[in-house]
Amino acid sequence: MVWRVLKAFRSRNIQSSIVLRNFASWLKVMRIAAMFESSGTIVKACMRDFLPANLRLLCSHYRSVAEVCRKLRINRGQFNKYLCGNSLPTPFNLKRICDFFGVEEYEIGLPTEQFIILIGVKARRISPSSEVTAPQRMLDHLRQQSSSQLKAHTGYYYEYYHAMTEPGSILCSLVHIYEEGQHFVYGRNERLQIAGPDGEFEQYRYVGVAYYLQDRLFLIDYESLTSNEISQTILIPSFKSCITRLNGLKMGVSAADHRAPACSRVVWEYLGQEINRTNANRRVRLYSMDDPAIDDDLRGRLAQTKVVDGLFVIA
After folding, report:
1. How far is CA 300 from CA 21, 124, 290, 296, in A?
2. C-alpha closest to that of 209 among 183, 174, 247, 236
């Protein structure tokens, strides 16, 4: 087994100094692994600990996770479970994944630091510094300028907007705005139905920050699994004591291959500070424009848009 590891290092032209530095620790790992090789205990433990991060690293060399799933012919929902560490691939799927990325099955379960070296990716060297970076200064400035009125808008919402990936449909997602440290952040969950009799869903998770600036709510997020999309939402806050529905605009890109930029009218429906997430998630899906679940008020709000002097504005 040790010989296989050394051979793997040499086949990738890893510098001898790196091999020597890591050989002692590798030897210990390999000796322990040899003791339990028959039962596979160590291998499974390493897979569960390191496969998600290593798999995300491999996927980062492609345009999107969806592209990888299409080429592998593996269901996106199942592949997401591998990326999140919720489950391990079957031996058959593991071989397909490793063959696709050109790595050995034992390599994809290695500690991520070692895996980075094996696939030839140079880890970025971050020099320790107490100096605040430019992005940090920008975020801190916005946080200081943001009004404390944002606190009144924390809680759970349904978000409705014209689906950018499925034109002619309305997408309902679940949003949670909450305070974390000195910032207001939020998570947004989406589910898209996969065509077919099984009725499965593709899951998407967005995370972002929220600011209240000059009587407007600004929300910026990114898709946390693939990190290949940023969207922005601007809402008109409620000045009433009881929040019901908030109107605004949303800008992003289609998740389809053409990735067309798009802008849609958006409506947020307030649910409360605490909800039953299981029940709430049942409504998170795509709807047709004439679906009875979309009431007339909501349908009317989503339709109230027009172009004025070249500007797409809320009517």
Report:
1. 66, 50, 12, 6
2. 183
**pTM to 2 decimal places:** 0.59
Domain 2-118 has CATH 1.10.10.10: no
Show me where the domains of the chain are located. Answer: 2-118, 134-314
Name which CATH class applies to 134-314.
mainly beta
How many other CB atoms sit within 10 Å of the CB of residue 135?
8
**Residue pair 281/205 in contact by the 8 Å Cβ criterion:** no
Give the closest residue to 228 by CA, choosing from 250, 200, 256, 248.
256
Residue 196: the pLDDT is 52
Quick: pLDDT tens for 86-110.
889 999 999 999 988 888 888 888 8
Hey, is 54 helix, strand or coil?
helix
Give CB contacts under 8 A, 24+ apart, made by 238-247: 238/153, 243/152, 243/153, 243/270, 244/269, 244/270, 245/269, 245/270, 245/297, 245/298, 245/301, 246/153, 246/157, 246/217, 246/270, 247/301, 247/304, 247/314
Cβ atoms of 115 and 54 closer than 8 Å: yes
